[in-house]
Amino acid sequence: MEIEIKGKKFEVKELPYIDAVSLDTENKEILVRTLFSKCLGMTDEEINSLSIADGRIAEKAIAEKNSINFQNPTEE
């Protein structure tokens, strides 16, 4: 599975199980940074520059590929 954000293509990868069980689910920022880095190969700079719309595209793709349920604070 591949997504395109800001004209750049990212291959969505599966998160290894051992990484999944060690995720900090209490801290949304650390969780998202870890997933975007490990599953998309994004740098901190790329993560920091994401719009809400692009972030949601990335979250959705990662969730689909890895059967992860994000709790999105941007939705009410």
What characteristics describe this protein?
mainly alpha; 4 helices; disordered C terminus; 50% helix; single chain; 11% strand; globular; 76 residues
Textual characterization of the structure:
- This protein is mainly α.
- It has one domain.
- It is 50% helix and 11% strand.
- The radius of gyration is 12 Å and the shape is globular.
Please give the structural blueprint.
Elements: E1 2-5, E2 8-11, H1 17-21, H2 28-40, H3 44-48, H4 52-66
Précis, in short:
With 76 residues, the protein is mainly alpha-helical.
Number of helices: 4
Low-confidence stretches: 72-76
The helix/strand order is EEHHHH
Describe the sheet with the most strands: 2 strands, antiparallel
Give the helix/strand class: mainly alpha
Radius of gyration: 12 Å
Count of spatially separate domains: 1
